[in-house]
What does this fold into?
Amino acid sequence: MNFKILLLIPFFFFTKSSSDDAVFWGKNGHRVTGKIAEKHLSRKAKKCIDKILKGQSLAFVSTYADEIKSDRKYSKYYPWHYVNMDLDQTYEQAEKNPEGDLVTGINTCIAVLKDKKSTDEEQNFHLKMLVHFIGDLHQPMHIGQKEDKGGNSIQVEWFGSGTNLHSVWDSKMIDDWEMSYIELADNADDLSKKQLEAIEKGSIIDWVNEVHVVTKEVYNSVKVGENLRYNYSYDHFGTVRTQLQKGGIRLAKVLNDIYN
It folds into this structure.
């Protein structure tokens, strides 16, 4: 093999992993949201969900929508993981993807789960997808700009290693905390009834627009190529925890509305 090609191989893998490192909350993030949701479910909703998922937890199924990405027969669902919006737009103003987006995905899942004619298989599939999509909605970079693929093309460093802005918010800060999803869920903030009601309030689109405000802050939090370290996590991990908790509370609200 040509010596120059040998030199290029490790560089290719480095740049590939750096730009495609992640396009979703990491596994721990989704599981945190699922675990928190379980704490806020009504008794009736818990019973219905347990039957549909055949005993599997919301935390366990929360990563399903990412696991099936390697199967091409599910490729039509890929655009449902995100929304592309300019930073100065609301969802209502943004150009819509003809293949659908996060809002499309969530509303489709809700419709199927409410439809009494849906088969057991359809119920199982769309419940697992819904759990994931509500989690994705609360990851700020899932409501990012089209031109940089929600921050996937914004190259930065995490403690000196190449990565991208999307990955930092998906998993780098969460993994660096070195806590299990159960520990993170159990240490979510204590909220008053009034605070819970405020989080539950609004529509799916309202939530998208709310998270998009955080998205703008994330874009403004780094410079291309910047080496992000302890101070970045110190400044922003609280926002990650808040988004995970809101995702769990709102997932429970949607599920309670469906099954009560």
In short: Confidence is low (pLDDT under 50) at residues 1-23.
